[in-house]
Write a structure and sequence with these properties.
The protein is mainly β. It contains two helices and eleven strands.
């Protein structure tokens, strides 16, 4: 593992604190996790057990273990993906995603660059935001 290297993500020239070679990512992730986290894929809706999990705890990045989302910020969006109205401070990065002929806000782990999902402005108070996150990008740690 290198520190402060270039991202292995398909669409990024950003510099991240933690990087791995493509071979290292493939060795540590399942094919689905690799597709989502490193190639900005999407898991099928309603397939993540984390979608319906509402236990107290913290959701961490599967790629580097950074704490990303607290369980108290999780809500049921009805979309089939774990959804949060805010991330932990200094936990995620964002960039424009213009794939599929639309403009979306992609979010990724600020430390390792792993793709998490997208942010939309149709969430609940107090932020009005919906962080729609692929469950395979997360690891839940109970309180």
């Amino acid at each position: 593992m290198a520190l402060f290297g270039k991202s292995a993500s398909a669409n990024s020239d950003e510099i991240f604190e933690i990087t791995r070679t493509d071979e290292e990512w493939r060795a540590m992730l399942t094919p689905l996790e690799y597709d989502v986290m490193r190639k900005e894929g999407t898991e099928r809706a309603h397939t993540s057990p984390l979608d319906k999990l509402y236990d107290a705890g913290m959701y961490h990045c599967r790629g580097c273990d950074l704490a990303l989302y607290a369980s108290e910020h999780k809500f049921n969006s009805g979309t089939g993906w774990p959804s949060f109205y805010q991330a932990q401070d200094n936990a995620i990065g964002t960039r424009e995603d213009r794939k599929f002929f639309m403009l979306r806000t992609e979010c990724h782990c600020r430390r390792c660059g792993s793709h998490l999902g997208h942010i939309f402005d149709d969430g609940p108070a107090p932020t009005g935001m919906r962080h729609c996150i692929n469950g395979v990008s997360l690891v839940f740690k109970p309180a």
